[in-house]
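Design job #97: recover the sequence.
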């Protein structure tokens, strides 16, 4: 590691100013930023924090660096870390059928229930429909009840056939942790990660989060209207292992430090082995879409290729809140950004482009954009209706091009305030299109492809959507 004296210190005032300016530009309600850079030892580590905006438009309470936000799906990496601890203890094998631990497991496909493994869950390749947010109550048995309800969950794709982001799989993983330890997922997380890392502002339950300055999410169903606070603050407790951690940006970088330090706490205690942290960062699954998030998946971690620089990290989205974590292991750099409304994705791209360029001389990967000259592609082959739990996607021709109508369905759509929207699909190449949501400056990728058995899918938002008609 380069000696800290050989490089300028991170300028806290500069990044405070840039966070405020960019958040205002992108109409982000509130945000916190933490930048961690490792030194020769824990005592030499650099950490700067910044905050801007308000926690809730209705109250006007200002965001501070001690404010807690929902980190959403970044929680999945914490759950994966717990799993790897249990692997090291010999309590579970990543490639053993889960029914060895959960003999009562029932899924809509009995063969999948017999064969699905923890590796499938951690790499989002189980095929269990991923956006099932069944509310099974606030009791300590919520995950047990949730897993029982998975018997009715559709199978999105054949086991191991492709990648599709799967919240359901991480709730299932959380239940496995409970069975192996005899404690709730929340208690295991506190005992094995939160307390060893001495994280004072990290929790999983709303009654814990309310003890701190807690952010409220904001949404705007109409891009032309100002955002407003959400009606539901938190998702059901059964979603916990997939996305219910609340934390400060500082605590999030402390978790990243654990992985940068090969599983060691600042005091030198081993929470996880160096071999396991390396395995979590290694490639375990390829992605049909290499533009929306990373280019591959580890065990919990998303892997990013930024112009030949390898990073890992994760994003998180809840009701009106978005979180971003990127880790550059070659330079010991971790950057966490937490937000509660507005064009958070645009803020992330602009801010992280500056941070990594100035502090690490690393260029963020370019976003997918349609070429100036649209290529000739066959459109009719993509027309149809695609469906998974919580979303119906209709693709049709209009005006010589393709349009994608995204229709949110189910209880989670109602709770989040999501509304139907139409996106024009601009061809990049055969099977690959770019679309720009009306509330964003950047483009998203839409990929059409077929599995080995010939079944057709459209992949966007990190999820595979099977064609139904």
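Job complete. Output follows.
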């Amino acid at each position: 590691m380069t000696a800290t004296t050989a490089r300028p210190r991170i300028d806290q005032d500069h990044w405070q100013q840039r966070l405020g300016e960019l958040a205002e530009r992108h109409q982000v309600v509130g945000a916190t930023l933490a930048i961690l850079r490792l030194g020769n030892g824990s005592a030499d580590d650099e950490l700067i924090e910044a905050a801007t905006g308000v926690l809730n438009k209705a109250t006007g309470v200002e965001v501070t660096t001690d404010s807690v936000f929902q980190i959403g799906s970044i929680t999945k990496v914490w759950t994966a870390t717990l799993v790897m601890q249990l692997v090291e203890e010999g309590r579970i094998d990543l490639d053993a059928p889960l029914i060895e631990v959960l003999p009562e497991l029932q899924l809509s496909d009995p063969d999948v229930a017999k064969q699905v493994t923890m590796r499938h869950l951690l790499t989002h390749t189980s095929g269990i429909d991923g956006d099932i947010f069944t509310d099974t109550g606030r009791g300590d048995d919520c995950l047990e009840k949730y897993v029982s309800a998975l018997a009715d969950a559709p199978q999105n794709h054949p086991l191991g056939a492709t990648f599709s982001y799967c919240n359901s799989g991480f709730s299932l993983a959380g239940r496995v942790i409970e069975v192996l330890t005899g404690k709730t997922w929340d208690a295991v997380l506190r005992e094995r990660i939160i307390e060893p890392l001495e994280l004072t502002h990290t929790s999983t339950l709303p009654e814990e989060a309310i003890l701190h300055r807690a952010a409220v999410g904001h949404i705007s169903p109409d891009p032309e209207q100002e955002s407003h606070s959400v009606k539901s603050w938190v998702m059901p407790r059964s979603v916990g292992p997939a996305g219910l951690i609340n934390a400060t940006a500082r605590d999030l970088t402390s978790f990243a430090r654990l992985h940068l330090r090969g599983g060691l706490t600042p005091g030198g205690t081993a929470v996880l082995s160096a071999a396991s942290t390396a395995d979590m960062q290694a490639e375990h699954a390829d992605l049909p879409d290499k533009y929306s998030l990373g280019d591959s998946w580890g065990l919990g971690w998303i892997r990013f290729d930024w112009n030949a620089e390898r990073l890992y990290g994760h994003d998180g989205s809840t009701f009106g809140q978005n979180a971003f974590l990127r880790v550059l292991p070659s330079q010991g750099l971790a950057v966490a950004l937490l937000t509660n409304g507005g064009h958070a994705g645009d803020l992330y791209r602009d801010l992280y482009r500056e941070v990594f360029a100035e502090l690490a001389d690393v260029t963020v990967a370019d976003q997918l954009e349609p070429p100036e000259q649209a290529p000739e592609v066959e459109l009719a082959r993509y027309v149809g209706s695609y469906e998974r739990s919580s979303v119906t996607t209709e693709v049709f021709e209009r005006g010589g091009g393709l349009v994608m109508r995204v229709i949110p369905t189910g209880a989670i759509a109602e709770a989040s305030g999501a509304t139907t929207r139409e996106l024009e699909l601009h061809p990049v190449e055969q099977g690959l299109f770019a679309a720009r949501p009306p509330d964003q400056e950047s483009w998203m990728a839409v990929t059409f492809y077929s599995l080995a058995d010939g079944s057709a899918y459209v992949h966007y938002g990190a999820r595979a959507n099977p064609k139904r008609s």
